[in-house]
Queue: 3 jobs
Job 1
Amino acid sequence: DVRMDGRCSREAEAAVYFAIAESLTNAAKHSRASGVRVTVRLRDGLDQGADVLWARVEDNGVGGARVLPGGGLDGIAHRIAAAGGVSRLDSPHGGPTALEVSVPCAS
């Protein structure tokens, strides 16, 4: 579900694309999910000056995902941070797992 009225910088779009692709790979390999929802929006960055590219990937799997050094989720966090953004993982045991990322469009 992608709804955007404009575009962001290549760096911002590439970072969010990477986060989505890696999240889908993780869901397919580890979550035992039967479904995954991807949502992407261009949000108004009122307090930050620039619009923000926001994405959420949520699966209905077993949960329990953790950020481990050198792992895929760690790679996502570093890639998003390098683009000036933030990421948040919510994955309680029993599921679901949701990853949200936000990157300034001007990054």
Job 2
Amino acid sequence: STNDRARRCAAEGPGPLPLLIVADRQTAGRGRRDNHWWTGTGGLACSLLIEAAQFGLRRSRSPLVALAAAVAVVDTVQPLLGSQRVGIHWPNDVFVDGRKLAGILVEVLSKRLYVVGIGINTNNRLSDAPPELRRTAATLLDLTGTRHDHTEVLSTLLGHLRDELCLLESSSERVSQRANQICLQHGNPLTIQTGKQTTSGRCMGIGTSGELLLETARGRQEFFSGVLVHQR
């Protein structure tokens, strides 16, 4: 896992930051809540270890970091996919035409360090994926029939990510507004689990602080964290 490697570097003293860790294959890729993340041969996995002070990141804006990364991924892959619709599934996934193309895992460490982990299915194929993923995942290679240069993808991604992280200091609402605009869950029925409680409602988008907005039987509710247990 590139995130695990970034955490070890942080513990050992990483030296000058930001620090980028890249892998074409992971044997222990992780998603949120220790879910497994498949990085098939040819996929792209990277983690960026950053210091909050470098981007003026306040702890109150931590929920927006994952959305900023997701926006950066969307802006990176959309030009490669033409008219195919790419967007965000709150809180940390990028989907294209109903299938998951990329995932984000942000971890907040001590000493105000952040690990921003990003996995994109680039040059891997679904035919090599575990059977349970073949109906729900997507790869750039399968969608476009073209292999994509990882150096170019990374360079574009890091440029977009830098811009979005800088906006969190000066105009965080621009990040949340952009995330809301490309959120693919608008109007969909969702069920979110927080602890032992589940809440169902209709998605009303993403709020100014990165929260998920649900219109429920008890009125509109806001969720800054949680697990989506049902979505379509």
Job 3
Amino acid sequence: MEIREIKENKKQFLRLLLRADEQEDMIDRYLERGTMYALYDGECDPDRPVCECVVTDEGGGVLEIKNIATEPECQRRGYGRAMIDFLAAKYSGSCSVLQVGTGDSPLTIPFYVSCGFTRSHVVKNFFTDNYDHPIFECGIQLVDMVYLRRRL
């Protein structure tokens, strides 16, 4: 397993990023200002990343995961957790908090809690106010953005 920082041509990784944030103009808001990482593992596919992540420095010691996605056929193998652990180790000296905003979904919230995150706050109507179409996960329409935090 190898994690590489992606510094150029970030849009070439858009296909996987759209799995976690399905509206391209929303990704455009953070892609260039964020730091992007790609996780490669020959066991799944040696030629393309199996997990991608974009993080932004929000100031005040807060690093935010804006997008993290794993190839569907490679999910439930620890790649997302490995990426989060990588971020926590890499930024523990320069940031004090790793945060993530996500929909209130039975798929994502338990994953982040299992990675050491706790609920922080909610941004009401984030998905309905910022996306041009309804977003559904597990048959549930996402309305509010739930923020979770992990101390570094």
